[in-house]
Amino acid sequence: MTTSEVAAYVDATGIVLNLDLPPEYRAGVVANLERLFQLGDEVMSFPLPDDTEVAPVFRP
Question: How far apart are CA 21 and CA 12, in angstroms?
């Protein structure tokens, strides 16, 4: 996503969730969300073999 798309997402989500995001925090929220999207892309692009199985549920 481009910076303007992320900013539009932040604005729209703030309206839907009725969040009062102060203007001085908006740029930081947009920058952090951009980074999270980049990290998510890296995780999702990691190739897994076809025979990969889901790990069992860990219960301490």
Answer: 11
36 vs 52: CA distance, rounded Å: 25
What confidence tens digit (pLDDT) does each residue in 30-50 have?
A: 999 999 999 999 999 999 999
pTM of the model: 0.73
Confidence grade of residue 3 (pLDDT, cut at 50, 70, 90): very high
Q: Which residues contact 33 (CB under 8 A, 6 or more apart)?
A: 6, 9, 10
- CA–CA separation, 24 and 15 (whole Å): 17
